[in-house]
Amino acid sequence: MAHNKPDPAGLKLRLVAAERLKSVLAGDNFVPLTAKELVDGRDRALANRLITTALRRQGQLNFIIHSLLDKGMPGRSGTFEAVLRLSLAQLVFLPDLGAHSALFLAVEAVKRDPKARHLSGLINAVLRSAQANSAKFGMLEDDMLIPDTFGDTWLEAYGEEAINGFSSALLAGAPLDLTLKDDDAELIGQLGAEKLVADTVRVDQRDRPVDALPGFAEGRWWVQDAASAIPARLLGAKAGGRVLDLCAAPGGKTAQLLKAGYMVTALDADANRMERLKENLKRLDYSAEIIVGDAGTFAPNSPYDGVLLDAPCSATGTFRRHPEVIWHRSVGDVAGRVRLQKALITNAFRCLDVGGVLVYCVCSLEPAEGEEQVEWALGTLPGLELWPVTADELPGLESAVTAKGLVRTHPGMKPGGNEGGMDGFFVARFRRR
């Protein structure tokens, strides 16, 4: 009587990780694996570690794969590439996990895929070659981590020292930043957090999911990167005024505007993301007027005292959290976002009362989506003038304020002196004369 042999230990997590990595390589955003996909917390943590290492080291892995595969990546080969990248990431960059499991589980994983099983001999040979050269491959230059698509532009815009910081930030990933509802030293202690700038605190190490951290259920804070928290603080519209938050979901900036005492209309075109915004505001015990609609065509009954436009963008500034983004984006993608941003800035201006304040921001490192948009707006929209930000408005981040009074953060910066970096963000503030 035949007995089905149980899967080797570690195979399931390798198969699940390969499927997730395959989808990201095909263009999806990386979403960490959850308990639904891998029940065991240790397996889940290891699978996510393998995937994120493969994504953060993508440039170096590209070089290694090119060196080892004489004929290039086989076409229509199922999960072969994903398994190969995970296994190379383990062999070369995660030596603490051991070489044997990388080799054995790679072959087993490929054998389980009907589209890839004919390549089991190839993956074994390639990984053995990589193992023999692991010391050499482990010394590859960090400048391989940033693709040429953006590397030259960033070098010109930010300088060599900053770019070195970008590479370090990419490998380190992003700590957890929170915006506090109230300044509460006891809560900060319970979270094991440190104060960064203004009402932002940072949790460098945690041993549980976000929704299990102290104060979450009671609505005492919300997740928001230190850079993302800057734009709403700079609005400076009249006290208690009516403010429009365009492209508002998932609601971090909406919550900040409500905390500041404004009457807020939150608008976004994505109904699903707006449900998340509603849930977030409910947990925080905040309320706003919520509209699902197009930020490019929205026409209010009466103009607003302030408009905050967090425009759709290339999102290159978020690569600490989403390392895949800098490999997915092209020059054409950026150009498409630039055209959309101009339409949104124009409509944001239409929604603004005379004397009102417009804050434009993007989580992008591209000058075309930031500084160049400011020049375009000032030259195109009559009655719009720049209201420069001053360094004393951003204590702890004075270096982010440019000579023209714009705000430019990047992943190499240290908010409040913290080594954990921050997202790349651009912020400009205008008034309507």
Automatic annotation (TrEMBL):
**Where along the chain is S-adenosyl-L-methionine bound?**
247-253, 268, 294, 310
Q: Where is the SAM-dependent MTase RsmB/NOP-type domain?
A: 138-433
**A Pfam short name:** Methyltr_RsmB-F
GO MF, any single term: RNA binding
Set out the biological process GO terms recorded for this chain's protein. Answer: regulation of DNA-templated transcription; RNA methylation
Q: Which InterPro entries match?
A: MeTrfase_RsmB-F_NOP2_cat, MeTrfase_RsmB-F_NOP2_dom, NusB-like_sf, NusB_RsmB_TIM44, RCMT, SAM-dependent_MTases_sf
Signal sequence, start to end: none
Q: Which residues form the active site?
A: 363 (nucleophile)
Keyword field contains Signal: no
Q: Which UniProt keywords apply?
A: Methyltransferase, RNA-binding, S-adenosyl-L-methionine, Transferase
Protein family according to the UniProt entry = Belongs to the class I-like SAM-binding methyltransferase superfamily. RsmB/NOP family.
Q: Could you tell me what this protein is called?
A: 16S rRNA (Cytosine967-C5)-methyltransferase
The protein's organism comes out as Devosia psychrophila
